[in-house]
Design brief:
By secondary structure, this protein is mainly alpha-helical. It has helices at residues 22-37, 41-53, 67-70, 72-82, 88-101, 113-129, 132-147, 183-197, 207-221, 246-262, 267-285, 318-334; strands spanning 11-12, 16-17. The relative contact order is 0.11.
């Protein structure tokens, strides 16, 4: 908030990007999670000013089908839920999702990051309007990603982890011969399922699938945790740009801590895992001024945005902070 007092200031890297892109939207997901724990008006006002600057709109307008562009809608909706008299906050995101539901196309989420960007939007709208069509379409699109993209789907029924997109489905291999499971990509799936289940009806027919997948993923992730508490960017090949990485680690902490708090996974089994990881994030990544080291910048595989070090500033700092705040919000509840 101190570094970016102008909520509308675009990000400048290889090109200019507006501040309602997915990287900033993920930051606000974390900020809203913090606000729910500590309702500081400064947090709320900062988020509201961001939405107001963009007139509660989406990058590329309401006709966009791109989950990255719809990610901001998660916070727009959360802010609407705080003040339901301000329907303008969700007008455009609802129109965008309604446009998608009005067609039969269900193959938009052809990369796993999109699940986190868009699934929770559908779930929130379903909850607000008590309309099962949002849940139904969300589930159809999710299953297409899981079972059909890349011929047989992007989820390994053997390893219980996700390939980032069709380019990484076998026969693609990492240098050590294992499948390429990108840490943050799998973290996005964890966050997508957590943030969607939270808004499903208690007896939703879809919850069982999402929770079962989370449990399978968590079980697969535990033996892949590094001795220092982090996970490598390449989950099954520590030789391919191995090292500490914050975003994937934070998202796994978020999901596992949430699972413990909801009573869906064993506290005895998973509490040591999340404590070890959270301790690593706080003691080895967090700088005294709030900067986070070991954040892999944008990309889609282990080699992107390297090297990842304690002092290197990634091309976007915002989404790493969002992941960290999400993890912290659930760790706090453990106490």
């Amino acid at each position: 908030m101190d570094k970016w007092p102008d909520v509308g200031k675009p990000s400048m890297t290889d090109r200019e990007r507006p501040s309602n892109i997915w990287t900033r939207a993920v930051y606000y997901e974390g900020l809203m999670a913090l606000y729910k724990l500590k309702p500081d008006t400064a947090y709320l006002n900062y988020a509201v000013r961001w939405g107001e600057f963009h007139k509660w709109g989406l990058r590329d307008g309401i006709k966009t089908r791109n989950g990255d562009n719809q990610c901001c809608g998660q916070t727009y909706i959360d802010l609407y839920l705080i003040d339901r008299y301000k329907a303008e906050r969700i007008k455009d995101i609802k129109a965008s999702i309604d446009n998608m539901i009005s067609t039969e196309k269900i193959d938009d989420w052809n990369w796993i990051d999109a699940l986190q960007m868009a699934m929770p939007v559908f779930a929130r709208l379903g909850s607000i309007y008590k309309d099962n069509s949002y849940y139904d379409r969300m589930h159809e699109m999710y299953l297409f990603t899981k079972l059909k993209h890349g011929t047989t789907g992007l989820y390994s029924t053997v390893d219980h982890l996700w390939w980032r997109d069709k380019d990484f489905v076998p026969p693609y291999k990492e240098p050590n011969g294992k499948s390429c499971y990108w840490s943050r990509g799998n973290g996005w799936v964890v966050a997508a399922l957590v943030r969607s289940v939270e808004f499903l009806p208690k007896k939703s027919k879809y919850s069982k699938e999402y929770i079962a997948t989370l449990k399978e993923m968590f079980e697969a992730l535990v033996p892949l945790q590094r001795t220092d508490g982090f996970w490598n960017v390449s989950l099954m090949d520590p030789t391919n740009f191995g090292g500490k990485e914050v975003t994937g680690t934070a998202l796994f902490v978020y999901g596992m801590a949430w699972g413990i708090n909801q009573g869906i996974i064993s506290k005895k089994t998973y509490l040591p895992v999340v404590q070890k990881a959270w301790n690593a994030l706080v003691t080895e990544s967090l700088h005294p001024d709030g900067f986070l080291g070991y954040v892999q910048g944008t990309g889609k595989e282990p080699k992107d945005s390297q090297p990842v070090t304690y002092d290197k500033v990634p091309n976007f700092e915002d989404f790493g902070l969002g992941c960290f705040l999400l993890a912290g919000s659930e760790m706090y509840k453990l106490k």
